[in-house]
TrEMBL record:
This is DNA polymerase IV. It is an enzyme of class 2 (transferase). Belongs to the DNA polymerase type-Y family. SUPFAM superfamilies: DNA/RNA polymerases, Lesion bypass DNA polymerase (Y-family), little finger domain. GO terms for molecular function: damaged DNA binding; DNA-directed DNA polymerase activity. GO terms for cellular component: cytosol. It comes from Dactylosporangium aurantiacum. InterPro entries: DNA/RNA_pol_sf (IPR043502), DNA_pol_Y-fam_lit_finger_sf (IPR036775), DNA_pol_Y-fam_little_finger (IPR017961), DNA_polymerase-Y (IPR050116), DNApol_IV (IPR022880), Rev_trsase/Diguanyl_cyclase (IPR043128), UmuC (IPR001126). GO terms for biological process: DNA repair; error-prone translesion synthesis; SOS response.
Length: 346
DNA sequence: TCTGGGGTCCTAGGACCC
DNA sequence: TCTGGGGTCCTAGGACCC
């Protein structure tokens, strides 16, 4: 028997859930995001169906751009409770297999399995998810989380693929370093500036040569990742939120201090109510303000009286945190306010 | 046709204490 | 007379992911 890590990744998850309850949409371009009105500004695509992606629609793209690229698309509002429910059904199916299960967001999971035939296991899992939830997924098989994750990308949509440290160089070496899981745009840009373009380039770089730009630990991690090394442990402990936040982007900028404070207070109260309903206590309150310039400072304060469930205290603290900002006089235009509560471990 | 929302983790600097 | 080193707490910001 051998230890394998599998990564299960649902195909176009949010769009697929919508199609499931509106079968007439199957095969059509579907775009989910915001309130579903592509005529309104400041809303972006959460997920596009493959049919919409074929027209160049991408997640994160403004809905208006999506509507322009794909006028025949069906636009739907985002419905998180529906996706949460569908996700729970998928995870319940996965949990019935003799594996270690780590839920990794709505539409992803890592599975750790002791088996001699991981591909057969992957096929059984894919079939079970499809039969029990009518949702299609890709399954990546790897010797660690990184290889499993990338294997799933190769498998998408709806397939099964195996990738290990042995096959990694041939499969990944020529790809841009930016394709690596954990390497975002900022890191990619720095790497390019250092002459490191591909995964193979990065794999062949001495960590010391990168430490100046990224720090020792991150440099080490980058090079190891480029060589296909990753975590092999699958953590089965249920996920426990460390924070919870809510933010609102306004259709039109706010320039009135009382209006800004009113939104912060309302967000803080609503958030506090959610957190308390979950049986958690708040340790810190953070406030985020995004100006029209897109500069987005954040301020945070620890609750004076210690962890609390007192909504008045949470709201009061949020307003005190807001006072730490220099909003300008008169206030500079604000396009977003957000409130985050940090939570005491249960 | 300007750029959502909800998360996690890491680093770094200053305050404060010994 | 002006200079240590370590440890912890706190806050701000960066970066990434789904």
């Amino acid at each position: 028997m051998g230890w394998w890590v599998l990564h299960v990744d649902l195909d176009q998850f949010i769009a697929a859930v919508e199609v499931l309850r509106r079968p007439e949409l199957r095969g059509r371009p579907v775009v989910v995001g915001g309130d579903g009105d592509p005529g309104r500004a400041r809303q972006v695509v959460a997920t596009a169906s493959y049919e919409a992606r074929a027209h160049g629609v991408r997640s994160g793209m403004p809905l208006r751009v999506a509507a322009r690229r794909c006028p025949e698309a069906v636009f739907l509002p985002s419905d998180p409770p529906a996706y949460q429910a569908a996700s729970a059904r998928v995870m319940a199916t996965l949990a019935r297999f003799p594996v270690r299960l780590q839920v990794y967001g709505w539409d992803e999971a890592f599975l750790g399995a002791d088996t001699d035939d991981p591909l057969a296991l992957a096929a059984r899992i894919r079939r079970a998810v499809l039969d029990e939830t009518q949702l299609s997924c890709a399954v990546g098989v790897g010797d660690n989380k990184l290889t499993a994750k990338h294997a799933a990308r190769f498998a998408k949509p709806g397939g099964i693929h195996r990738l290990t440290r042995d096959t990694w160089p041939a499969a990944m070496g020529a790809k841009p370093a930016a394709d690596l899981w954990g390497v975002g745009p900022k890191t990619a840009k720095k790497l390019t500036a250092l002459g490191v373009h591909t995964v193979a380039d990065l794999a062949g770089t001495a960590p010391d040569a990168l430490a100046g730009q990224f720090g020792e630990r991150a440099a080490e991690w980058l090079v190891l990742s480029a060589r296909g090394a990753g975590e092999t442990t699958v953590d089965t402990a249920p996920w426990v939120a460390r924070s919870r936040s809510r933010e609102t982007t306004f259709a039109a900028d706010l320039t009135d201090r009382d209006a800004i404070a009113g939104h912060v207070a309302a967000l803080a109260r609503a958030l506090g109510a959610d957190v308390v309903a979950d049986g958690r206590r708040v340790t810190h309150v953070a406030v985020k303000v995004r100006f029209a310039s897109f500069r987005t400072p954040t301020r945070v304060m620890k609750l004076r009286e210690g962890p609390t469930t007192d909504l008045d205290a949470i709201e009061r603290t949020a307003l005190a945190v807001l006072d730490k900002f220099d909003l300008g006089e008169p206030p500079r235009p604000v396009r977003l306010v957000g409130v985050r509560t940090d939570l005491e471990p249960p």
